[in-house]
Amino acid sequence: MTGEIRVSERRSSSGIGDGSFDSLVAELAAGLVVSEGGELDGGIETALRRIVCFYGADRSTLFRIGDSVAASADPERAGEGVLIATDCWARPGVPRIEGVIDERLFPWASTTLRGGESLFLDPTRGVPAEAAEDLATCRSWGIASLIAAPLVAQGRVVGVVAIGQLSRRRPWSDAERLQLAAISGLLAGAVARRRSHLELASAREGLRDAEARFRRAATTAIRAQEEERRRIARELHDDVSQRLVSLSLELELAGVSESIAAEVRGLAEVVHGHSRRLHPRLVESLGLREAIETEIASFGDRFDGRVELIANDRRDADEIPLEIASVAFRLVQESLRNVARHAGAEVVEIRLETSEEELRLAVEDDGCGFESAATPRGLGVVSMRERVALVGGDIAFGVGPLGGTLVEARLPRREPILDGGGDATA
Fold it and tell me: Do 423 and 327 reside in the same domain of the chain?
């Protein structure tokens, strides 16, 4: 639906009492109620055009009521308002109303409309004496006569619909004033729904901006964490490990028990292993798939079972952005660590699949699973959840076909950062 209303634009002789107004209301309602989102703009414009044609007028306008800048800045001027033209339809050659109108130019009309009553400014019929300033404004603007009704939403006047006559003076009747009051209810509903749609669209845009900022912060956090791991790994390798090696040599030279020297050498190897696992250089230098293969080889030294990697194209896996690949690698590390500590497994399968949009990782074993092992709540699992969440992915823990623990993660195949211009890279 485009909101267009297919009705004859010929006005009946009386305007009321012969069914023509009822037909107008029905078709306005149909055009405005079914319109959604951006279609509401077209539906409202069509409604304003039909109103002009039905009444044989020159122009119809929707206004939103707001506070003036002065009222917002000065509490003593509270109550001073403005009419903000949001929609207007005019016959060819008739100027449309745009911008903001100070309500002080129409003091009587403003008070009446804010009070929830419709009105007309018709010099041919006379108006209250207090409307003199309103009529003077009309004359200065070339308005011969007008009729207006308030837009009421949730019991509050939020806007105005006005029909103006410029080419000639036209007497408006009380019946027509009541008609416009009825039409204003339809327009008020459409305006309220359009505002809700715009607010929802704005909220979604704000959510997207917040998500982009979150992803940027996530990247910073991941990089900071990896940098700290790199620093600790370097200290373990260059300082602690080297000192232990030197100590083992000194113990041998000093003739101290060979078992003590061997124990120190073994400790040096353990520290070296921790250093290697902490340092992200495996992923940086080897790529994700080969880094996982290297980790599997290291894990095999302390695992009596079988570990199998099932992966698609190596090159495709190696083209994953470093932040995402690092998260996947850490998931494999933590999963294997949990297998060694808790599973009592004999078989471990690691599945790595990539598509254009995401990386899918699964680590499964044939161990005890969750029935005899604690539901995963440890620090390692918490770290896994946080890492995946930081890059906008999903992770789940369950029981797999092998009967043991299954860890499944889906990671977006994009770098969770913004470029220098502030646009999302995704």
Answer: yes
